[in-house]
Amino acid sequence: MKISARKKAENRQAILAAAVDLIIENGVRSTSMRAVARQAGVGDATIYNYFPTKEALIQGYYIEAFSQAVDSLHSVEDFEQCNLNERLQILFEAILECFLADREFVNLTFASVFFDPIPAGKSVRAMRNQFMGVVKEQFQAAEESGELTEMMFRELVCHFVWDFFVAVVLYWLRDDSEQFSNTTVFIDRSMDLGYSVIRSGVLDKITGLASFLFKSHILSRVDMFDEHKATFRKLKQEFMDNVEPR
Amino acid sequence: MSSRDDIPEGRLARSLVGGKTVARVGGVYLRYAASKRFRSEAGREAARREMSGKGARILLDGLCQLRGTALKMAQMLSLELDMFPPEVRSQLERSCNEVPPMNRAVARKVLVNAYGISPEKMFTSFDSTAFAAASLGQVHKALSAHGEKLALKIQYPGIRGTIHNDVRILKGLLRPFPEYGALAPAIGEIEARFLEETDYLREAENMEFFRNSLNMKGVFISEVFPELCTEQVLCVSLLEGQPLNSWLKTGPDSRSRDMVAQRLQDIFIRSLYELQCIHADPNPGNFLVFPNLEIGVVDFGCVKRFSPSFVDRFRRLALALNRNDRQACVALLGELGTIEEDADPAQVQRIGEAFATYGEWISRLYADGVFDFGTERDFMREGKELSMSMRSVLRELNINPDFVFLDRTRYGLLRIFERMEARVRFRNPFEWPY
Predict the structure, then answer these.
(1) How close is the nearest chain A Cα to the Cα of B103, in Å?
(2) How far is A16 from chain B (nearest CA, A)?
(3) Would you place residue B333 in the very low, low, confident or very high pLDDT band (cuts 50, 70, 90)?
(4) In this structure, are residues B200 and B300 in contact, taking their beta carbons and an 8 Å threshold?
(5) Taking CB atoms and an 8 Å limit, are B161 and A177 in contact across chains?
(6) Please, which of A17, B19, B191, B280 could form a disulfide with B167 given CB 3.0 to 4.6 Å?
(7) Pick from A78, A177, A184: CB nearest B109
(8) Confidence band (pLDDT; 50, 70, 90) for A17?
């Protein structure tokens, strides 16, 4: 039987909601795929069409939450006028707002998904790429508006933002201040610092210096090769002559 | 490790900022102290001035980094305790306009926390760039769903939790200044006031009280929208006047200045004697001037209520001063608890004399029908010198805290009048016996 795309999306939502409820109630270990399927009102076998494993199910939640948060950015009226650190801050806060209702679930699962000792699986990479894609867009926008000069190591910095984000979520999970305002302050302060480091171009200067040193070394060697080109050619010639079968 | 240990409240970071500043201020002082004995008298004075100027700038840098409380405290100290050298003061006053604003993301987050939905859904429009700095937060314009123009005062998140630490850091920052001894007690009181001022629900109540009871022609107070107020967000109707200090920069003529100053004085007198409750933050930024010279009063975070008996005694004290009745003055000071019951006669004599000198100074305001701050340029300076010379006597006094509050507010107003070079009628039916 073929079901519509809408029904499929609804099922997916129902499964995720059921999983969140059951995991909050019983913990990850004691929650079975079957229990989730029954609570969600889908067949015991059907659930595997959506998520092949419990891990995939949990990761599915995070992918969903990320997408929701990114969608919510469109409703921010003056997002376009915000500078880079404001945009990233809004993104972080939007994700945390999506997590908020399921905070207990996030508390039980976040570390196991993002801090797995086994190198991150495919789906974690997918999530990270999704996140970094959004971050990269913001960097690009900042470069286009002239807010930032073009960066040599944008990729690296984006990775860094991802790591920072994971740290923020872990901080948030342990934050017991009213309305988690300590997290907001934490994001604000550290983002301020990171942003000024990026803007000052320190990173590019350091890497620029390193590559300058590297290049000048290499080039001096290349020059040496150049000077002795004739010798090398002769050596090569002789070698080839020797190898050549008679 | 308990979960509490996991969350630094940012004190370490804040202390680092503070500590760095202390070190730098200390360094500047040290350099001054080292070079002191090698300078001529005139050179020494110049060096001292330069030193407090530098010290003040570094202090300001440090305070600006701390934002919030520390900065606000600096402003209060600069306004109320006229003890810093002018270099320090001018730096601190500049800071009123130099508060690094919280960015759009944070302002937004505070509103989401307060209302549970995004500002776009809450208001027809919301201007994410602040139009005014309120020391412990900032003010944004917004348009309500019903089309009313609103002013939203937004508090930096978590600021209440940092007040205590900031006060400690500020004490550390101020310690190298020679005036520290005199400032220390005031700082404790300021801390208590901060906790009050960061409660916006309370401010909303105060504002409503004044709006309903003050009823003065030409004086406006915002309407409060209680359903949109929380502890961190204050939502009131927008008053579109110009802040007093920027209005003064437009060079208004003397008639206008007199009129505005008189209104401020009348607000003070009426609040004190009829409402027994004053707006106790006479910062020039808290008064707005409209083109027709009407006045808007904003920021009711700091409001002081007095008991009727205190107000009555204070009024009789002013009357006695204006009649130059020294005996009545001493008796009233006793009633106000300022002279202790078991004080020996010599002490009472000393206090009486000191108070008489103070009385002579303050009653100059009432001497003629109108007091002209434009011509009486030395008046405020003399008052400051007087209070310095009275310090030894003040130490013997058990000053009624209400009295300190009132006096400080009045002093703040006088400083505003001085800056306005205005002509003000001080005689009023409550304080003038004739």
Answers:
(1) 7
(2) 24
(3) confident
(4) no
(5) yes
(6) B191
(7) A184
(8) very high
Going by C-alpha positions, the residue among B165, B189, B184, B166 that lies closest to residue B174 is: B184
Decide if A93 and B10 are in contact by the 8 Å CB cutoff: no
Residue of A98, A185, A190, A192 for testing the chain B interface, max B β-carbons within 10 Å: A185
Q: Give me the interface pTM, i.e. the ipTM.
A: 0.71
Residue among B3, B13, B109 whose CB faces A189 most closely: B13
Give the pLDDT score at A106: 94
Phi first, then psi, for residue A4 (nearest 5°) are -70, 160
User: How close does chain B come to A175, measured CA to CA in Å?
Assistant: 6
Closest listed residue to residue B130, CA positions, set B142, B118, B121, B119: B142
Summarised one tens digit per residue, pLDDT across range A115-171 is 765 655 676 788 888 899 999 999 888 888 888 877 777 788 888 888 889 889 999
Interchain CB distance below 8 Å, B120 and A189: no
Substitution target from A85, A172, A176, A179 for chain B, most B beta carbons within 10 A = A179
CA dist., res. B76 & res. B227, Å (int): 31
- CB–CB contact A90 B126 (8 Å): no
Whether residues A177 and B109 touch (CB distance < 8 A) is answered with no
Give the β-pairing of B295-297 and B219-221: parallel
- Report helix, strand or coil for B137: strand
Nearest CA in chain B to A77: B120
Three-state SS across chain A? CCCCHHHHHHHHHHHHHHHHHHHHHHCCCCCCHHHHHHHHCCCCCCHHHHCCCHHHHHHHHHHHHHHHHHHHHCCCCCHHHCCHHHHHHHHHHHHHHHHHCCHHHHHHHHHHHHCCCCCCCHHHHHHHHHHHHHHHHHHHHHHHCCCCCCCCCHHHHHHHHHHHHHHHHHHHHHCCCHHHHHHHHHHHHHHHHHHHHHHHCHHHHHHHHHHHHHHHHHHHHHHHHHHCHHHHHHHHHHHHHHHCCC
Contacts of A175 in chain B (CB under 8 A): 7
Structure tokens at A3: 């079901």
Q: Which amino acid is at B313?
A: R
CB contact under 8 A, B105 and A78: no
Question: How much is the pLDDT for B60?
Answer: 61
Binary contact (A185, B7; C-beta < 8 A) = no
**pTM check: above 0.90:** no
Element (H, E) at A68: helix A54-73
* Coil/strand/helix, residue B104: helix
Structural domains in chain A? Answer: 1-52 (1.10.10.60), 59-200 (1.10.357.10), 207-242 (no CATH)
Structure tokens at B58: 């570094």
Task: Provide the shortest C-alpha distance from residue B65 to chain A (in Å).
Answer: 11
Higher per-residue pLDDT: A97 or B338: A97
More confident residue, B158 or B360: B360
Find the mean pLDDT for residues B246-267: 93
Please list every residue in chain A whose beta carbon sits closer than 8 Å to the beta carbon of residue B4: 176
What pLDDT, on a 0 to 100 scale, did the predictor assign at position B57?
A: 65
Q: Which range, of A86-90, A196-200, B195-199, B409-413, averages the lowest pLDDT?
A: A196-200
Contact A185 B109 (CB under 8 A): no
Give the highest mean pLDDT range of A237-246, B107-116, B262-271, B370-379.
Answer: B262-271
Tens digit of each residue's pLDDT (9 = 90 or more) over B286-324:
899 999 999 999 989 888 899 999 999 999 988 988 888
